[in-house]
Design goal:
Elements: H1 22-39, H2 45-54, H3 64-74, E1 78-82, H4 88-96, E2 99-103, H5 120-128, H6 134-149, H7 152-167, E3 170-173, E4 176-179, H8 182-185, H9 188-194, E5 200-203, H10 206-210, E6 222-226, H11 230-236, H12 240-250
Helix pairs in contact: 4-6, 6-7, 6-11
Enzyme class: oxidoreductase
Protein name: Phenylalanine-4-hydroxylase
Binding site for Fe cation: 122, 127, 167
Length: 265
């Protein structure tokens, strides 16, 4: 990724321990308390079950070894400390090896409400609970394998699939619309926005997803829903690269958002 981060990830010591300050642990504690209120009745059951399994501390940032013990026992995954930003090659390589990258920094107090790049709160609170689910874990693993083998021009299409599932995925359940995407689950604003009646919410169609542009710095104008978490496993068994070729031939859908750069008149 070309742009630099203003954050610096913390390096674990010789025992694999990351030393967090009291102020950093306090930010974690406040973020967790706030988001737990937001996701009550909105997060999918699989996420809530996973949250129980990983048993996150509320008063401090967890050590990665604590998470790894649970993830290894449930789905064979691990979390791995990475710099604030990594390139696509490294991202896909890690996922292909069942290692979920976690940037080991936490947002500043000034960016408490919104942070464009993923910090340790987003990665752990947003994603790790779902990685205890076998269907979700297999989808993410297969995605990493595909991405690592793919050419650069095809990775852009695969990125859209990740965006509309792992990051911003929704599920239609008997209890109503539920969230499984970590980008929503770690954001109070996006959690509330999903239920506001503003965004368009469509059933999952992989070819459509591959053709749907997105922006990372706005509330999403469009989300896609699956009917159960097992749908992700079924998607992982498709010939996704053949669908990428179809998407390239058909071209992208018109974006549902304004262009990013607007020059002042």
């Amino acid at each position: 990724m070309a742009k630099a981060s203003k954050y610096t990830s913390k390096t674990p010591d010789e025992n694999g321990v990351i030393h967090w300050s009291e102020a950093e642990n306090k930010i974690w504690s406040e973020l967790v308390a706030r988001q737990l209120k937001c996701i009550t009745g909105t997060a999918c059951n699989e996420y809530m079950e996973g949250l129980e399994k990983i048993n996150l501390p509320h008063d401090r940032i967890p050590q990665l070894s604590e998470l790894n013990e649970v993830l290894l026992a449930t789905t064979g995954w691990q979390v791995t400390p990475v710099p604030a930003l990594i390139d696509f090659d490294e991202f896909f390589r890690l996922l292909a090896n069942k290692q979920f990258p976690v940037a080991t920094f936490i947002r500043s107090r000034e960016e408490f409400d919104y942070l464009q790049e993923p910090d340790i709160f987003h990665e752990i609170f947003g994603h790790c609970a779902m990685l205890t689910n076998p269907d979700f874990a297999e989808f993410t693993h297969k995605y990493g394998q595909l991405g690592y083998a793919a050419q650069k021009k095809d990775r852009v299409y695969l990125a859209r699939m990740y965006w509309f599932t792992v990051e911003f995925g929704l599920m239609q359940t008997d209890e109503g619309l539920r969230i499984y995407g970590g980008g929503i689950l770690s954001s109070p604003g996006e959690t509330q926005y999903v239920y506001s009646g503003t965004p368009e919410i469509n059933p999952m169609n992989v070819l459509d997803v591959l053709r749907t542009p997105y922006r990372i710095d706005i509330m999403q104008p469009l989300y896609y829903t699956i009917n159960s978490i097992h749908d992700l496993f079924d998607i992982s068994q498709l010939d996704i690269m053949a669908l990428v070729e179809q998407a390239k031939e058909l071209g992208l859908h018109d974006p549902k958002f304004p262009p990013k750069e607007k020059l002042a008149s």
